[in-house]
Amino acid sequence: MRLVLTPGYLLVAAVAFFTCGAAGALAESYPTKAIRMLDGFPPGGGTDFLSRTIGQKITESWGQSVIIDNRPGASSNIGAEMAARAAPDGYTLFMGLTSVLAPSMTLYPKLPYNLLKDLAPVSQVASGVYVLLVSNSLPVKSVQELIVLAKSKPGQLNYASSGVGSPSHLAGELFNLRAGVSIVHLAYKGGAPAAAAIASGESQLTFVSVPAGMPLVKAGKAKAFAVTTPQRSRALPDVPTIAESGLPGFDITVNYGIFAPSGTPMAIITKLNREISAILKYPDVIERLAAFGLEAKGSTPQQFSDVVRQEVNLWAKVIKEAKIEVE
């Protein structure tokens, strides 16, 4: 059988060849100017810390500045929307916290962007844990004792969060659902007043990051009962997981990662991914992240995409079952 190459076929093949060649050449020269790293939170938090740590290393490696642009507001959705609407040329990136971005798809059904369609995962960069922090005013010594007490006093215990729809709120509701208890949610205007409520005994428990929670523990004002990840945290090796404390399968992992606008050439995403993966293996980067209670954790774009989709599905279910609504 003789293969006949029609003019149309040859034209399509030629376009594909030159398009791939152009994309490869673009990635080879990229970057030729400064890169903007959007961050949906104020300076000083986890995303800002990671943006500056990784941005500095990219700057040193590639000789082009990475400019951190903090655009806080609306649970980081202002910054995410800006990234989604930016030119897909590799010069705008977004450092995201998936435990905030993923629930937003259900909490805010009228978001002007779609996390799964308008942002392209580049790489996961770090993971962390939440700590179940219990006030000294509560006469229990373990997660199991806490669950027994909560079941004996339905609606009489409460947990503090930094606001409706916040990660600490969602963690509390997941705990309620998995443990079969009814611990009442108390929403505060931020993490600081929520932590103060635990220290004073106004609230009995909360879920917080390691940097936010451990000062209370070290000061003797609260107890660290468990971490929310499947494995124990390197930062708190003596603190058990919730899963091993009576709720098998319980998992809230704090995932951070970098996104690009959808449509960014895969050759550029691949180049970024390789550089970020290398950076996350530097001993000084690993140590810096560990000091912040985080574990350096790279991934392929597809692996990070899978993490995001899993979180979207998890939090959609929790939000619907707990009937959480934001004003």
Uncertain ranges: none
The helicity comes to 40-55%
The CATH homologous superfamily of the largest domain is named: Bordetella uptake gene, domain 1
For the record, the count of structural domains works out to 2
CATH architecture of the largest domain: 3-Layer(aba) Sandwich
What about the largest sheet?
A: 10 strands, mixed
Through-space gap between termini: 68 Å
Query: What general form does the structure show?
Result: elongated
Q: Could you say what the CATH topology of the largest domain is called?
A: D-Maltodextrin-Binding Protein, domain 2
The CATH class of the largest domain turns out to be Alpha Beta
Tally of individual helices? 12
> What's the number of extended β-strand segments?
10
Structural class computed from helices and strand pairing: alpha/beta
Overview of this protein structure:
By secondary structure, the chain is of the alpha/beta class. The protein folds into two domains: 9-127 and 254-322, D-Maltodextrin-Binding Protein, domain 2 (3-Layer(aba) Sandwich); 129-245, 3-Layer(aba) Sandwich (D-Maltodextrin-Binding Protein, domain 2), CATH 3.40.190.10. It has helices at 7-29, 46-62, 77-85, 98-107, 115-118, 143-152, 167-179, 191-200, 210-218, 266-279, 283-291, 301-322, and strands spanning 35-39, 66-70, 92-97, 119-135, 158-161, 184-187, 205-209, 222-227, 253-261, 295-296. Strands 1, 2, 3, 4, 5, 6, 7, 8, 9 and 10 form a ten-stranded mixed β-sheet that branches. Strand 1 (35-39), helix 2 (46-62) and strand 2 (66-70) form a beta-alpha-beta unit. The longest helix has 23 residues, at 7-29. The chain is elongated and about 75 Å long. The N and C termini lie far apart (68 Å).
